[in-house]
Design goal:
Largest sheet: 3 strands, antiparallel
Structural class: alpha+beta
Shape: globular
Oligomer: single chain
Order of helices and strands: HHEEEH
Helix content: 10-25%
Strand content: 15-25%
């Protein structure tokens, strides 16, 4: 799932996916400036960027809630 635009520039902690949506972020896939794919386990302090892809553990209901922007 690509990071929704409303989370660009926020930290993982600020996005609060677990409390807001019941989603656990397991990893982030990000392209480097050189175009290489980088995968990492994020900390709460990592800032989300446009183009980031989140690897998540979530129910279909939780993903639908995230996609629809519902709190």
């Amino acid at each position: 799932e690509e990071v929704p635009h409303e989370f660009y520039g926020k930290t993982v902690a600020e996005a609060d996916f677990r409390r807001r949506y019941g989603i656990s972020v397991l990893a982030v896939k990000r392209l480097t400036r050189e175009g290489h794919e980088r995968r990492f386990v994020p900390t709460g302090e990592d800032r989300l960027q446009k183009g980031d892809v989140l690897i998540m553990l979530a129910t279909d209901e939780a993903l639908s809630k995230l996609e629809n922007g519902g709190d």
